[in-house]
Amino acid sequence: MKENNIHTLCVCPRCADIWTDKDVCPFCGCTMIRTKYTQDDEYAAFETGVESDQFDNKIRTEYVYGNPLYSDAEYQRRLKQEDEEFYDSSSSVPRCPNCGSTAITTGQRGYSVIYGFAGSSRTVNRCGNCGYKWEP
């Protein structure tokens, strides 16, 4: 287990929500479980082709499913609320198309080892939560 890592992934045993370094679930108020995984593990898995849903399912399988606190009703309620917030067309707040986070930064694409400076002046959005990049 990775100790003292400020980027530890935590999971809620009741609604299966996954956050970084949270003591209490922002959705249902349950005490979070600190996992052995970090954001670096998540990024490394993503770079090897593992989708974030697959990685999250791995965490939920290890820490949530089978836990006596787990509630499928709370899990489904959380998913429904997240979908409603993600697809809320009345909101003018930009969201990440990958995870729905509002922690978005906009900047230049930058230098690439493969392409050099070609296209480096193009603007891209970056998600502060999952790292996903896309053009505005």
Quick summary:
The protein has helices at 39-47, 52-63, 72-86; strands spanning 8-11, 18-20, 33-38, 104-108, 123-127, 133-134. The protein is α+β, with helices and mostly antiparallel strands and 136 residues long.
Descriptive account of the structure:
The protein is of the alpha+beta class and 136 residues long. Helix content is 26%, strand content 18%. The strands form 2 sheets. A 3-stranded antiparallel sheet has the order 2-1-3. It has a 3-stranded antiparallel sheet with strand order 4-5-6, with no helix packed on it. The radius of gyration is 17 Å and the shape is globular.
Number of strands: 6
- Average of pLDDT: 81
**Poorly predicted runs of 5 or more residues:** 1-5
Please list the strands of the largest sheet in the order they lie side by side.
2-1-3
The major pleated sheet works out as: 3 strands, antiparallel
Radius of gyration using CA atoms only: 17 Å
Which SSEs are present, and which pair or pack?
Elements: E1 8-11, E2 18-20, E3 33-38, H1 39-47, H2 52-63, H3 72-86, E4 104-108, E5 123-127, E6 133-134
List keywords for this structure.
disordered N terminus, 3-stranded antiparallel sheet, 3 helices, alpha+beta, 136 residues, 18% strand
